[in-house]
Design brief:
The chain is an alpha+beta fold and 518 residues long. It folds into three domains: 288 residues, BirA Bifunctional Protein, domain 2; 110 residues, Herpes Virus-1 (2-Layer Sandwich); 106 residues, Rossmann fold (3-Layer(aba) Sandwich). Helices cover 41% and strands 25% of the residues. The chain has 18 helices and 23 strands. It has a seven-stranded mixed β-sheet with strand order 3-9-10-16-13-12-11, sandwiched between helices. A five-stranded mixed β-sheet has the order 20-19-21-22-23, sandwiched between helices. It starts with a helix and ends with a helix. It binds glycyl-adenosine-5'-phosphate. Glycyl-adenosine-5'-phosphate binds next to strand 10, strand 13, strand 16 and helix 13.
Length: 518
Amino acid sequence: MAAQQSDQFKKVIAHCKEYGFIYQSSEIYDNLSAVYDYGPYGVELKNNIKQYWWKAMVQMHDNIVGLDAAIFMHPKTWKASGHVDAFNDPLIDNKDSQKRYRADVLIEEYMEKIEKKIDKEVAKAGKRFGDAFDEQQFRETNDRVLRNQQKFDEARDRLAKAMTDGDMEELKNMILEYEIACPESGSRNWTDVRQFNLMFSTQLGNIAGEEGKLYLRPETAQGIFVNFLNVQKTTRQKLPFGIAQIGKAFRNEIVARQFIFRMREFEQMEMQFFVAPGEEMKWYEYWKEARMKWHKALGTPDEKLRFHDHDNLAHYANAAVDIQFDFPFGFKELEGIHSRTDFDLSQHQELSGKKMQYFDPEKQESYVPYVVETSIGCDRMFLTVMSQALQEETVPDAKGKDSTRTVLKIHPALAPIKCAVMPLLKNREELTSKATEIFNDLRFAFSCQYDEKDAIGRRYRRQDAIGTPYCITVDFDTLEDNTVTIRDRDTLEQERIPIDQIEKIVREKVSMKQLLKD
Ligand code: GAP
């Protein structure tokens, strides 16, 4: 299973490059690690993902407004938010391989191995006992499962405590006790664990030293917090209300593997929802459900998404949950929903000396609002879409024989190109001029492509590979009766429709309206 999964992951990465979705940054200089560029189809897909999020958040909510804050912020912002002191990852080096790891990730990987052992034991028993198998009873009584579960629980609790306490010595002890070896060298020759701050910094041109030290924002959220009163006053919003933002964030990640899952420069789509103190848990539950619905509307099957409560809370949160997706390398965080209390606004109030309070007209009192945040990485969402859309299928070719096709079954509303227009033959002017005429009209409505190169079957396959939901073919009948064929990417069905109906039919299927209603 694991091998199959990593195989799928390799295919996703190769497909992204081959079809112009994603390239490694600065490839001609042998790449810049964990930084990526989006190609012609990638940028279209990414823009569509952002648009789907923006419309669902801002356009569909009267009480959510948008913002585009600068990447650079006053350095005190990051002192107030806690990022200067606490935005650290525990780092450990292996002395033999000279490789650097996150200590908590090494322990988590050890825990995953135990979990897999348990699952294997349960699956084996399930096979042995067939229909009579009672999984819960087995998990509660089988010696081996119980021993492993105890090991797992103990590691989880110790890790959570060590992370909350910032206890680096305990993390090192765990790595030694659990006999965790370097995946590269196989040795257990480890350095001590030390804290590593993840913020990138740079220097203002006209101020030397610490005073002029600027950070590249590690999250977009702080741009929202410092503008909270500006936005509230200028839009005259009443609590509860939200501010949404899409923008770049930067983190000097120690472990930068897994393609666009963990990048050093990435994009976030964040929304801070300001509520009266005491109402935060109600809204936390609301946003948990709302965000899960947003994912499922894209057709992601239930079993590919799950909630995962945080074992160790970030320094600002009193409740936090991840929406995890079953990536080709397992279930991992796709989005976070955090109840951030009044931490950020109170901190900014203290460090800036400016009031960050809201006057509640009903209660006739002022207070610092509480915040519920939804935060999703745009790039992780991109990877989610690509990893479930990329499929290989056996389909009949033009002669009715079995052939394999690679198809990207992206939701039509997110597809980079909505429809391709093709003349049946390239060398017949009457066909190419008609197809060009149709294309030149449709391009006003949505992103289209005109394609006349190669045999029609190959052109269909090319469009399948970039996820184009519809192909319009102009043939000799078109010249007689003003109809074309429309081919559906997923069902492969071809229908004859009048030219003047193309726009309406395609628009209905690729519009975001239905997606937003869902
Ligand atoms: N403002 C809250 C915040 O930033 P986070 O859990 O650290 O919370 C939110 O990040 C989301 O940003 C994650 O769920 C993930 O989708 C995305 N993200 C975080 N670090 C990332 C990275 N290095 N590369 C790509 N996406 C990342």
